[in-house]
């Protein structure tokens, strides 16, 4: 009988915990679960935050969080899951950045932590106790890491950049 590997158990706990938090946030956006606004409420929020097109942005954020979270928790397609969740969190960081770092002031501390954790899991791999391990890492190949993170970075930069270009800043000294 093989001894349990503490590192793999640690990765399992980190994957499941992070994935569950992300999935809960994503289902708030997509389905209105856990007190969320659902796709309609999230679409309105995305529009108010300057994301365009707002419905596509709402769906992408919800899928990045919910889909990435579920896949991370399972340890399935781990590079893509980590990259998708990290990309979704990049958008959240952009929204919260004007409020500074700390979450108590509305800052980006929390989405940054979730994004870095998801990215780290995606880069590290799922560990032995995962669906990826059961499938002999069919969806966890080295080339997938590069492709998933490059794609997520390009998409996040495009979405955040488009939002930044579309935002109108009103100077209070001129009003």
Features:
175 residues; mainly alpha
Please describe the topology of this protein:
Layout: H1 6-31, H2 38-48, H3 54-74, H4 78-96, H5 109-124, H6 131-134, H7 142-166
Helix pairs in contact: 1-2, 1-3, 1-5, 2-3, 3-4, 4-5, 4-7
Tell me about this structure.
The chain is mainly α and 175 residues long. Helix content is 70%, strand content 0%. It has helices at 6-31, 38-48, 54-74, 78-96, 109-124, 131-134, 142-166.
Biggest β-sheet, characterized? none
Structural class, from helix and strand content?
Answer: mainly alpha
Shape from CA axes? globular
Overall pLDDT? 93
Measured as a percent range, the helix fraction is 55-70%
Q: Beta fraction of the residues?
A: under 5%
Question: How many helices?
Answer: 7
Element-by-element helix/strand order: HHHHHHH
Summarize the structure.
With 175 residues, the protein is mostly helical. It has seven helices and no strands.
């Amino acid at each position: 009988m093989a001894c349990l590997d503490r590192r793999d158990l640690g990765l399992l706990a980190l994957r499941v915990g992070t994935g569950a938090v992300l999935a809960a946030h994503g289902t708030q956006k997509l389905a209105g679960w856990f007190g969320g606004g659902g796709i309609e409420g999230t679409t309105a929020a995305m529009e108010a935050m300057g994301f365009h097109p707002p419905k596509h942005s709402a769906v992408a954020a919800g899928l990045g969080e919910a889909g990435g979270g579920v896949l991370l928790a399972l340890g399935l397609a781990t590079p893509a899951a980590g990259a998708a969740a990290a990309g979704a969190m990049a958008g959240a960081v952009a929204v919260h950045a004007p409020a500074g770092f700390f979450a108590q002031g509305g800052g980006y501390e929390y989405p940054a932590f979730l994004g870095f954790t998801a990215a780290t899991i995606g880069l590290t791999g799922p560990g032995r106790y995962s669906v990826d391990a059961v499938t002999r890492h069919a969806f966890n190949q080295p080339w997938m890491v590069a492709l998933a993170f490059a794609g997520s970075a390009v998409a996040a930069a495009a979405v955040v950049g488009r939002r930044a270009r579309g935002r109108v800043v009103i100077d209070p000294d001129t009003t």
